[in-house]
Fold this protein.
Amino acid sequence: MMMLKPLACTVLSAALLSACSVLPTSNEPIVFKEPSLSAPFYALNPFNYNEPPAFELELKKVGSSKNRLIVPATNSKTRQVSYATSASSNQIDVTEIDDFLQLVEGKARHYPPRFTERQERKGFEAKLKQVNQQLETLTANNNASFDVLIRAFKASVMARNLDLGSAYTTKSMDYAQRLQKLNKEDPELNFWFGFALSEGGGQREAIPYLDKAMKAGVQEAYLSATNNYLAMEQKKNAVQILKNYKLQYSQEAHVADQLIQEIEKKGRWNVWQVMNPSK
């Protein structure tokens, strides 16, 4: 993926800083090998766990190794991804942004984020701050496009999840409200707005957005809705959502059964404590 090298370099730089006091003991040339990223915790395609992530699906449509993913910067209320070698006026190349955001989603889509390596998390945090700053410049336009705002929204939610500052909570809600004015029926927006509200303490407010996402076919919305009802101490509703999930996604029956058992016997309040949807 296109962002693997920059991200790996960020992680590697942090690791090197912590080991800078160690000097080589021979004249042999030092060859640094980029560390591989650990596996994602969350499924990279929340719409359908059996499908590749949206970024990879978009890359298949590019049609040429020179083409990039291009979106309008302003004056667009819906998604308008196009494929060209470079962005023209009033457009932005989001190829690297989308590549990186996909990687972050695998670790930090929900709270708390899931990292096994401290240095890897630091690399993600440093790069996410940069991406947020880049997107904030674009969203400063009052007529910023839906494509720009949805990326800024997701980036700010994950920055909040990574505890990068309370300002990201305010920014994420501002982006969500602006997006609602542009296209309140967008499935991805409703999913992200729903679980962001829920995980931020607004469980009751989250219900209509998660309901819309489930009706629109966002697979992970069922699990977020389950979490939402558990946080509200409404176990019957949580179990019913999982029964619906089992009917809708028969391949996930074992997951639904396991979660129902955990809820009924142990009162689990978070489905991510029980299962790993990326596997």
Summary: Residues 118-139 form the longest helix (22 residues). The two ends are 20 Å apart (CA to CA). The chain is about 55% helix and 5% strand. The CA atoms of residues 225 and 259 lie 13 Å apart.
